[in-house]
TrEMBL record:
Its cofactor is Cu cation. PANTHER family: CYTOCHROME C OXIDASE SUBUNIT 2 (PTHR22888:SF10), CYTOCHROME C OXIDASE, SUBUNIT II (PTHR22888). InterPro entries: CcO_II, CcO_II-like_C, Copper_CuA, Cupredoxin, CuRO_CcO_Caa3_II, Cyt_c-like_dom, Cyt_c-like_dom_sf, Cyt_c_oxidase_su2. The lineage of its organism: Bacteria, Bacillati, Bacillota, Bacilli, Bacillales. This is Cytochrome c oxidase subunit 2. Keywords: Copper, Electron transport, Heme, Iron, Membrane, Metal-binding, Respiratory chain, Translocase, Transmembrane, Transmembrane helix, Transport.
Length: 355
């Protein structure tokens, strides 16, 4: 009895823990609280398959319990050798046809949704963004707006936004759980999907394909704003010019160091649209001070930025920035950080939408 009670207590404890943990998480980082059309379609498929699998489970368990209770050997029953039978065409037909029907019920809507979400026949009538995956960050070229940025993807609410995905290096996978399903990002061909967000806010995205030692740190954000805010953000990005910035003396020295130490060879600080076929070397820093995360996951403090500039490998192993520029002193890194923290083209930011 003691052993049985111990197992029961363990089961209750694990069940309670699972129940409590199921309440953890964030609405903007889960496929179970859809905030976009693609995620909504995925949720409907999840519900459909869950209902079918639950039905199968219950039927099997009911049959199992009936057989267990009805045909169990009772105390005092003689030992008998059950009748040996070979095949039952009716039973075999039933357990073949029913699974086929259940698979069709799940497969047809899934295939339809897959092709529907990949249909880009009307893409020319909507916003189009070329998304490039890199180890371990994302780059965005806004085709018609002729601007480019990295990490934070800005889109208007209730609007179809087509993203055309390709990678510069290894395989990646673009996934914003609350807004859409995931799609592979390949080096050989462009894969296309669209995002349509129902609500304004900031939604977390992930790379869903193991791509190296810092795969888990390849995070990004989709910032969903109103149509008016989006138009203003585009205008702010188009008109931003670092040459006209009113920098303090320390930041001005930082800008000069940014150019002298070859940082500018990899990182743009004036928004631009990379020409077709060009490859961005490093993340675009035009709106660096507007981001609510550094390197995709760190708090954007000056201390973290200085540490990143001096030793990026310790924060994001395997990144291509490591060893690509001369060693910097504490003073030089501090001045460059001061400059970058003043790159703020717009008042419309991820932080403002999170509030």
């Amino acid at each position: 009895m003691k052993g049985w009670m111990g197992k029961l207590r363990t089961l209750v404890l694990l069940g309670s823990l699972a129940f409590i943990l199921s309440g953890c998480g964030r609405d903007n980082l889960t496929a179970l609280v859809p905030k976009g059309y693609g995620a909504d379609v995925s949720m409907q498929l999840i519900i459909l398959t869950t209902v079918v699998m639950t039905f199968v489970f219950l039927v099997v368990m009911v049959i199992y319990v009936i057989v267990l209770m009805r045909y169990r050997k009772k105390k005092g029953d003689p030992v008998i050798n059950p009748e040996q039978v070979e095949g039952n065409k009716t039973l075999e037909a039933v357990w073949t046809i029913i699974p086929i029907i259940l698979v069709v019920i799940m497969a047809v809507p899934t295939v339809f949704a897959t092709f529907h979400l990949a249909d880009d026949s009307d893409s020319e009538d909507h916003i189009n963004i070329d998304v490039t995956g890199n180890q371990y960050w994302w780059h965005y070229d806004y085709r018609n707006e002729e601007i480019a940025t990295s990490q934070d993807l800005y889109i208007p609410v209730n609007t179809k936004v087509y993203v055309h995905l390709i990678t510069n290096d290894v395989l990646h996978s673009f996934w914003v759980p609350s807004l859409s399903g995931k799609l592979d990002v390949n080096p050989e061909n462009v894969n296309t999907m669209y995002i349509e967000a129902y609500e304004e806010g900031v939604y977390f995205g992930k790379c869903a394909e193991l791509c190296g030692p810092s795969h888990s740190l390849m995070d990004f954000k989709v910032v969903v704003v109103s149509e008016e805010e989006y138009d203003q953000w585009v205008q702010d990005m188009q008109n931003f010019d670092t040459e006209t910035l009113d920098l303090d003396p320390v930041a001005q020295e930082g800008r000069e160091l940014f150019e002298e130490k070859s940082c500018v060879q990899c990182h743009a600080t004036d928004t631009q649209n990379y020409s077709a076929g060009s490859v961005p070397i490093g993340p675009d820093l035009t709106q660096f001070a507007d981001r609510s995360r550094l390197a995709g996951y760190l708090d954007p403090t000056k201390e973290n930025l200085v540490k990143w500039i001096q030793d990026p490998e310790s924060l994001k192993p395997g990144n291509l920035m490591t060893g690509a520029y001369p060693e910097l002193s504490d003073d030089e890194a501090d001045k460059i950080a001061e400059y970058l923290l003043q790159l703020k083209p717009s008042e419309i930011t991820a932080e403002s939408k999170e509030d």
